[in-house]
Specification:
The structure is a single chain. The chain is an alpha+beta fold. Among the domains are: 115 residues, no CATH class; 48 residues, Roll (Chitinase A, domain 3). 51% of the residues lie in helices and 16% in strands. The protein is built from 7 helices and 7 strands. The strands form 3 sheets. It has a 3-stranded antiparallel beta sheet with strand order 3-5-4. A two-stranded antiparallel sheet has the order 1-2. The chain has a two-stranded antiparallel ribbon with strand order 6-7. A hairpin with a 5-residue loop joins strand 6 and strand 7.
């Protein structure tokens, strides 16, 4: 993708609000480039696409010098865009192909976000949490100390001296012989519901979405052809490992 195409693509993303930021009621014109108005919400969307880190501060919270640097960059892009449009670059086949690709991706992204939002209910998350916690009831965590010696003979002699405390039989590893003393043992405390809820929700959404997509594929009419137009065998879904 050449520089002009990247610019147009970036501008398309910005104006389409692909990051999902809604225009606030108090939105205002923050920059004028010739006769074109650029709103604060457009700048915020553009800033978030430049630095897509969830911990990145909002544009309004940036230092004034940084804000003006960002605005200069946006102004430069708009001026270059205007020149490119004057020369008909936006009508070129290469640009139109890229715009169509981006359009499809944005549509799919918005649809899947809306679809997954309703796929998992609170009750589903709670049920999965209860299952995970039940599976952890027999899990134990231990705290131990160990002494490492070179030979089994040394380990046995040391064990005899330590038998008044609770120590293990000598255990061999690639490093030598270990005498281990168990100091504490307790059941693993399960994570709280609030701690693990986001991960459970994401996992269930991914699972539900996968099932939904498989259903679409199964019901569809898919045909696969070679370069000569001859139809080839095609498996709609990959076979499970170990199955023929």
């Amino acid at each position: 993708m050449n520089r002009t195409t990247r610019l147009l693509a970036a501008t398309f993303l910005m104006t389409s609000a692909v990051a999902g930021f809604a225009v606030a009621a108090e939105d205002y014109v923050i920059l004028k480039v010739n006769n074109a108005n650029i709103t604060a919400s457009e700048v915020q969307d553009s800033w978030k696409t430049m630095v897509p880190d969830e911990n990145t501060p909002a544009f309004a919270d940036l230092d004034e010098k940084v804000r003006q640097n960002v605005l200069r960059g946006i102004a430069s892009e708009r001026l270059i865009l205007d020149e490119a449009v004057k020369q008909g670059v936006d009508k070129s086949e290469a640009v139109q192909k890229q715009v169509e690709i981006l359009r499809k991706k944005i549509i799919v992204k918005q649809f899947l976000e809306a679809k997954t939002a309703d796929m998992v209910k609170e009750a589903d998350i709670k049920k999965e949490y209860d299952r995970i916690v039940a599976g952890m009831k027999d899990e134990m965590e231990v705290r131990a100390r160990h002494i490492l010696v070179a030979t089994e003979k040394e380990a046995k002699a040391l064990k005899a001296r330590l038998d008044k405390g609770k120590v293990s039989e000598p255990v061999k590893s690639s490093f030598g012989w270990h005498i281990i003393k168990l100091e504490d043992k307790r059941r693993v405390a399960p994570p709280t519901y609030s701690e693990i809820k986001p991960r459970i929700k994401a996992m269930l959404q991914e699972k539900a979405l996968g099932a939904y997509i498989e259903q679409l594929i199964t019901k569809s009419d898919l045909k696969y052809f070679d370069a000569s137009g001859k139809e080839k065998p095609f498996e709609k879904l990959p076979k499970e490992v170990g199955k023929k």
